[in-house]
Design brief:
Low-confidence stretches: none
CATH class: Alpha Beta
CATH topology: Purple Acid Phosphatase, chain A, domain 2
Strand content: 15-25%
Bound molecules: zinc ion
Order of helices and strands: EEHEEEEEEHEHEEEE
CATH superfamily: Metallo-dependent phosphatases
Mean pLDDT: 94
Oligomer: single chain
CATH architecture: 4-Layer Sandwich
Largest sheet: 6 strands, mixed
Structural class: alpha/beta
Helix content: 10-25%
Number of domains: 1
């Protein structure tokens, strides 16, 4: 059993806490599904022995201010999983950052670009499969099409992620981007392909058998 702390979109006082990580119990792995400030990722990197794995969100506030005139930098001691397949704490993770494009700016992509990112990951994932290893976690900022997508343009679900469910049957898909504000907003569901889809908004603990 691997105990995963998943975070996104909002800094929870339970995570950014003097009592962390004892207050949340044992944590084997941290995944951040985007729009988490870089300082929080670096905080988690110093508190735990495994590097947090993250993708950036469309607001790209994962960056930290550089020293003096240096450009903004990404958090240290963490692993950016965008367009990569990484293995941390015995868990394989494939990542795709950002959201569908709804205005000019970075970390927003056309649907065709999301499809290309998914295709680029295919050779690595096929190799893993040939070695008998399944993709454990698909880590994205935006949601797949389905119950977790929003009704407005910025929060549309990404069809490429549903395709990845069909191709690779990941055990878990952790995403963010869609804020869970309503009292009955669902945090989890199981897709038609048997993928457990979890909205990490704020923070949530996930047990991966
Ligand atoms: Zn977002």
């Amino acid at each position: 059993m691997t105990r995963i702390l998943a975070i996104s979109d909002e800094v929870s006082p339970f995570v950014y806490s003097q009592n962390f990580p004892e207050n949340l119990g044992p944590i084997d792995l941290v995944v951040s599904a985007g729009d988490i400030p870089g300082y929080l990722l670096e905080f988690l990197a110093t508190k735990l022995t495994v590097p947090p794995v993250y993708v950036l969100g469309n607001h790209a506030n994962g960056y930290l201010r550089g020293e003096e005139d240096a450009p903004p930098r990404l958090p240290g001691g963490c692993i950016n999983a965008h367009r990569r397949v990484v293995e941390v704490a015995g868990v394989t993770i494939a990542g795709i950052e950002g959201s569908l494009r709804y205005r000019p700016g970075e970390h927003q992509y056309e649907g065709a670009t999301m499809e290309r990112f998914a295709l680029e990951l295919a050779p690595r994932l096929a190799l893993q499969r040939a070695r008998g290893r399944r993709l454990d976690v698909l880590l994205t900022h935006a949601a797949p099409q389905g119950p977790h997508e929003g009704e407005d343009r910025p929060h549309r679900g990404v069809a490429a992620f549903n395709r990845m469910h069909r191709w690779w049957r990941p055990r878990l898909h952790v995403h963010g981007h869609v804020h869970l504000n309503g009292a009955n907003a669902p945090r989890r569901y199981v897709s038609a392909e048997g993928v457990e889809v979890v909205n990490a908004f704020g923070f949530t603990m996930i047990d991966l058998p």
